[in-house]
């Protein structure tokens, strides 16, 4: 088990490696200050305000330095809100401040208020409004965003869990007493990537056929964009389920299965069968529209093909793109809401929703352990009902993937690989975050 007191040394060892490919690492405060920041944040994370779960972000930065970083002429500057006098930095103050704003947008600004090295005092000198663009980028609601400033940031969204980052690059997280490093491309690579490969290729081919070509980007600048967009939907769906805070289970199965297929019904009792097939069509329309928009946009930007007809067409495509993306966002919200019903949501690798409120009835007598990605065996009896049901389903249907979203925000993946059921213990921590 790891605790806040263990994190400073881990941070010092990892910070330079993680930041080396991006920008210079932020200056870290002395250990006594870092320990105060971590301990206070950790204990504050367990508190609730009128039964609401507390979420907050702290940034350790000098007031003058942070204000200097914000260029008022920049398109989307961060905005500082300065208190007349610093507030004390303690658990009670975090509890009082946090409900007043969205942690996805506003950071609590902390710095040292005296000059003492032996007995440094910390205070909250203000707030930093970073806007919503970075959060929208993380949740795939937008394709661009302005990151938080390059200062040490401590975030908490669940009791006892902390994430340490700077400029939107996560160093590591403390979750359930374990230090978890950022992960990249888990869905695209390995066994999970093998399962979703067929769906992503089908999506790419459908987009190309709609464009009446042989490749998405003949120039080769962004040929993989349709496949990335495919995986973005999976991440986006899991992200929205996680944000609801009630937990949920999602099973992905091959698209040849239907709600009445005995291969499925022998394993689950689908209380609410569906055949919801809107997502795939909207995703294809979105990518096709995206490509047509830029086919016009780039030449016009260079001063070429500036005709009235092209201008009207460009405007119409842009307006249509907004409508498609809004409809797709609505679909993501709709499907994520289905996870609030007791039981699993079942969706195919072409994002056709087969049903929800699904109870796993499959039995797997030989299943006694699950194996983590570190080859560690864990008895299934040590997990809760939601996890055990997912293990049994994936054990009995090899061509499937289960995602288990816990109420505390953790996201796990499971699937059968050969004779074993594999568990990815935490896939929701990507390299970018808060």
Automatic annotation (TrEMBL):
It comes from Candidatus Electrothrix aarhusensis. Residues 26-128 form the Probable sensor domain. This is DisA checkpoint controller nucleotide-binding. It comes from the Bacteria. SUPFAM superfamilies: YojJ-like.
